[in-house]
Amino acid sequence: MKYLLYFFLFTSLVLDAQELKSISSEPLEASSFIGLDAYKNSYFIKDGVLYKQGPDGNFVFKDFQLGRISSVDIINPLKIVLFHEDTSTVVLLDNKLNEIERINFNNLSEFINISSATNAGNNRLWVFNVDSQQLELYNYRNNQKTKVSQPFAGSIVSQTSNFNYCFTLTENKLYSFNVYGSLLSETEAVGFSRIVQQGNMLIALKENQLFLKTENSFKPLKLTFSENKIKDLYLSKEFLYIYDGKSVHTFSITQSKQ
Fold first, then answer.
1. Domain assignment present for 46
2. Is residue 117 part of a domain?
3. Which of 37, 114, 143, 168 has the smallest CB count inside 10 Å?
4. Shortest CA distance to 25 belongs to which of 49, 6, 46, 1?
5. Distance CA 6, CA 201 (A)
6. What is the CATH number of the domain that holds 24?
7. Could you list the pLDDT tens digit for every one of the 258 residues in the chain?
8. In 3D, which of 220, 231, 187, 242 has the Cα closest to residue 25?
9. What's the CA gap between 235 and 87, in Å, rounded?
């Protein structure tokens, strides 16, 4: 009966040359689902605590004095990036969620008021400077920052990145930049609330509907979620994970037959 329920709640969808099929569903009680790393370890937040569970073992990180965890970047599971916007602090964790380093942007010699922070590799972070309204690369080893973008309007709603590119979603637009400071695209994106990215694929969430980013717009994806609300997303090379507040639903990404 449980299998039939999930069968009717989730349908297959086609992304141009790629097909996503529902393959599993696992219950999860959490405030938010972060994602899975390449070693199949699951990360989630519950009651202000970050959890890691899987083949590597079970680990936790908590520091309530820093306020809520605004975002967690697990692109490098050996150097996880936690951002606490309330205290403008980034905490770097190892693969056992032990603290490696803490960066309090309030205490820097040149204060930076930021609203997002994700991993850029090579001791750098992608950060959005609220005062200048610019995306910057901040090197926390030598305390240097490089402006990546010209000022743009709006507040950051969602940000995702890798070591070469950063995608920033505001209330009205989606911007993509590279590490050399080039604006690669600017797309109308009114009302979107979340973006996830992997390789050349970017998926966005708007009013419980998923959209695939195309060259100049967004294409709706045919995914029926019934009364279940999409709460969190995570995209890996082979899987799309959707958390509805009760379970994590996994979709495999395969090449469809031409």
1. yes
2. yes
3. 143
4. 6
5. 25
6. 2.120.10.30
7. 333 333 333 334 545 545 678 889 999 999 999 999 989 999 999 999 999 999 999 999 999 999 999 999 999 999 999 999 999 999 999 999 999 999 999 999 888 899 999 999 999 999 999 999 999 999 999 999 999 999 999 999 999 999 999 999 999 999 999 999 999 999 999 999 999 999 889 999 999 999 999 988 999 987 765 568 999 999 998 899 999 999 999 998 765 554
8. 242
9. 28
Look up residue 1 and give its amino acid: M
The verdict on residue 7 lying in a domain is no
Give the domain extent around 181. Answer: 15-255
**In a domain? residue 9:** no
On whether the CB atoms of residues 162 and 127 are closer than 8 A, the answer is no
pTM above 0.85, yes or no: yes
Output the six-digit token pair for 128. 């959005």
- Which among 202, 225, 196, 229 is positioned nearest to 214, based on CA atoms? 202
Q: Position 219: which residue type?
A: K
CA distances from 82 to 20, 32, 85, 112, 124 (A): 30, 14, 10, 17, 14
Tokens of 100: 């490696």
Count other Cβ atoms within 10 Å, centred on residue 159. Answer: 24
